[in-house]
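Case study 2.
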Amino acid sequence: MSVDVQRHLEGIGRPRPVECAPQAERGHMAREGWGKTRPHEGLGLAELSQCWAGLEWAEAARSQALQQRLLQLQRLETLARRFQRKAALRESFLKGAEQVLDQARAPPASLATVEAAVQRLGMLEAGILPQEGRFQALAEIADILRQEQYHSWADVARR
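Prediction:
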């Protein structure tokens, strides 16, 4: 510990002989500008206030940007859940169509099985046309997720 610090610490407990300057001396000091605090270096009060306002503006802009990004991520998550749900429906449709086609490829056992296969193929054909638009909508959702750089894009691309 330095000598100055030790003297200061020792002086803390002792009462000071003079608490403040006499009244006349205080008036003289005020007239001469004593007691006014002025920074010798650095920023003045106005400059500091401007810098502070700039910081508050930057903080508000950053907060707004974060809030917008959070909303975008929530929208992408919702879109991804919708994609997964719709993809599961389309996959089940395709599995059903594959089963119908596999049954149609089997050698016919009787005339009734041939008629049933023809009827199932007709129903499959009628069901394919409306599904085309649904598959296109699914592809559009996947494209949006890719463009927006969704974090689980690999899962979407696999489906």
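The CA atoms of residues 43 and 51 lie 9 Å apart.
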